[in-house]
């Protein structure tokens, strides 16, 4: 679960020949839960901002469609050649 490094201490039980395990990235469960909650909240805020941005873009295109001359029933999303 960890990396092995040379140990200056003797009497280490499990690692072979004077090597000591180094635990990397160990966190308490409460920190992990808190970090997951913060990550989820940031994602929800980012999703909300993106949704608002897309609604604004769509509203702008809708306003542009009202300014473009067209025939009734004609799709404005298609370009006529």
What does this structure look like?
The protein has 81 residues and is mainly α. Helices cover 48% and strands 10% of the residues. The chain has one helix and two strands, in the order ββα. The protein has one helix at 29-67, and strands at residues 3-6, 19-22. It has a two-stranded antiparallel ribbon with strand order 1-2. It starts with a strand and ends in a 14-residue tail after the last helix. The model has no long low-confidence stretch (mean pLDDT 77). This is Transcription factor AP-4.
List low-confidence stretches: none
Q: State the share of residues found in helices, binned by percent.
A: 40-55%
Number of helices: 1
Give the class from helix and strand content and strand pairing: mainly alpha
Major sheet size, sense and barrel closure: 2 strands, antiparallel
Radius of gyration: 30 Å
Global shape: rod-shaped
As laid out across the biggest beta sheet, the strand order is 1-2
**What fraction strand?**
5-15%
Number of strands: 2
The termini sit apart by: 65 Å
Please trace the helix and strand order, writing H or E for each element: EEH
Query: What's the average pLDDT?
Result: 77
